[in-house]
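hiii so my PI (J.) wants the whole complex modelled not just the main chain, which honestly fair. so below is everything: two entries, each one labled with what it is. i double checked the lines twice but i was tired so who knows lol
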Amino acid sequence: MKKLLVASTALMMISGYAQAHNAGCGLGTEIIGNSDSVMMQAFAATTNGSSGNQTFGITSGTSGCAKPANFVSNDLHEFVAGNMDSLAQDMAQGKGESMETLAELMKVSAQDKPAFFASMQRNFNQIFTNETVTSAQVIDNMVAVLG
Amino acid sequence: MLGGSSLQICRRSVVGWLCSPLLFATLPSWGESTAAIAQLQQIAVERQLHQQRTWQVLLHYQPTLFGVESLIDDRDFFLAADGKQNPEAELQATIAALFEQPADPNQAPQCRFIARHHWLRQQLADTPAVAAIPRLTCGHYEELKARVAPNGVTLIFPTAHINSPASMFGHTLLRFDSSRTKSPLLSFAVNYAAQTEENNGLLFAIRGLTGLYEGYFSLLRYSDKLKEYSSTENRDIWEYPLNLTAAEVEQLFNHLWELDQIAADYYFFTENCSYQLLTLIEAARPQLQLIDHFTLQAIPVDTIRLLKEERLLTSSHYRPSNVTQIHRLEAELTKSDQDQVVALIDGAITPATFVETSELEPLRQQPILDLAVAMTHYRFSRREYDQATFQRRYLPLLKARSGLGLAVVEEPPRMVADPIQGHLSKRLAVGIGRAAGEPFSHLALRPAYHDLLDAPLGYQVGAAINFFDLELRHYTESNQTKISRFTPLEIHSLAPISPLIHPLSWQVRLSWEELAPESSHYLSQLRVAGGYSRWVGTKLIAFGLLEQELTLASVLEAGYRYRLNGVVGLHGLTIMDRIQVAATLRQPLATLPTQEREGVALELAAQWSGEVNRGIRWRSSYRPPSVTLPAQSGVEHQLEFRYHF
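here's the output for the full assembly
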């Protein structure tokens, strides 16, 4: 039975989308799907087909991305690792949904948010240091900036 | 009753200490279980529980000619051998299965079928035997529930992507709004999709249309779905929070849990994503009768309209895609600003240099960099860059932008129409006309979806998709009624070029039409065209396409005619936002096998839509004299009333 084949350990360990399609733990990992022809893309939209894992087991980790040196919640690392591009874009602009989410995950209070966004934007170069920066490094850099 | 007499025995007996409550509770004897099961099953029969709406909904039973059958095709969903067709047997088997206690409680039916368990307990709450049902700890379920923390449900509607009209029907999924987190990006989304590794586009379509794929529900972060729909596929998204109570949300979640890794055959037209989502919403509130409305087709936007009728929608939230944002930014910039963007994304100037040397003030530099960033992302989504190139171009732009501070300008409010306000999907037309000098009256029926002259509110500009349009005519003079045209498929994708993005425009039409009013012959025709279109002002689109046309007809000497046509035209919205016009010129450039030189054909049409579902359309066409198909030449006029329902 399919059910019995599912991992019977306490935590479901099956990682879904991110593992199947992530090309790494840095920038340029938000674009998902394989390189399909236009035809294939057109037809793919008809069935919304997915070759990814379909269980409800949600990853508890970050799809194999190295953890930051600082101890942070899994949710925070998972979010940064999976949303590097939009986080970088929003951080450079000093606003945006990714930044709001980051603030929530880092437990920034409502009144501290404007200063938090401004600080992150000002220190963008220290956080997203180079093209191949990884999610773990970004988190550690953020922690360093926040002091 | 049973438990009570056992306790009495325990109190009176010498070895009563063996009857400690804990021991008794965790290890009911086999005899007691059997008796309890029998009793519960009997009461279930007396109360005809299997006939109740909730049971029918949880098991996805649908009436058939001979009784009922579940829409679920997976053996693992049923506990009785004939559970797929027999609600009573399934209910009896479920009652018995609630007593099972395997080594891993997560595998127990009680923990796999949470919604059924809860409902049965509730229905049998007044019977003493219900106390004999063991209470297992369903660890995996509890964990997932704590993680997702569902306390609201939002319907998510990614709309079409312009160059993929097959996606024009859109898609629907659900999002669990969480009591644990605020940001939607951290919420979890429920998606139903066909599972496949297929790489051949045509096979993919055929199998998706005929139920040869299995569909499964999946649960993943909403941010992952946004990456897919908004960033990669560049589709706008509409979000509609649903009006469900906390208890209903929990029941929906519990039923979804029951469907983990359970397959149902996927049918693109009928049992598709939107249809299956409705079954989840019915599980939340069984009094709702939703899927009954969708026997022949389940078009996503129609399912959303039904939810609105049922007062389940309260508000809507619009999320523009990356491409939509790009077009918005383009419109805000002057030509020279746009040139700067091009220079940046082509690498003619580095972002750092741009910021250093630009004469513009920082506030004016911001949108230029923002657009360059969005364009870089767009090109990456189109696979024009590999990951390394993307990283090299993306980061310097962002570094430069971060030095310019916050954007002070407030974003203008969005003026985009909610898709559910658009005209309905099925269309009936009644009219009169004149073809080759002969008057006719005309009746046409189309099950889906939208053409270029229909009221554009809520639909994507320049995109049209029609299925199975059937036109009948009654010619008054010759007194004959016949099919004048049947169009299984017609797609238009006129995606206007913008300063930075130059998509291809294309159209396809497969049709079967009468040769001429007085003829009993028919011809089949396939047209495939590609080219470009552009805005003329803000309301008209001009297009130029190269078209390949293949006509098959018995009256043709060779049986076929192939032509290469040049097609130019204009289409758009003119006076008072109520009138749509279309003009098309078609000039054959080369013909096989006869190499005749035919003149240009012309089509003019206009429609006035008083309201979105009702319109009056006029159409006139001229076909020049033809050597290969002489019967087709001539002038035709038509005036019709159109009604969407």
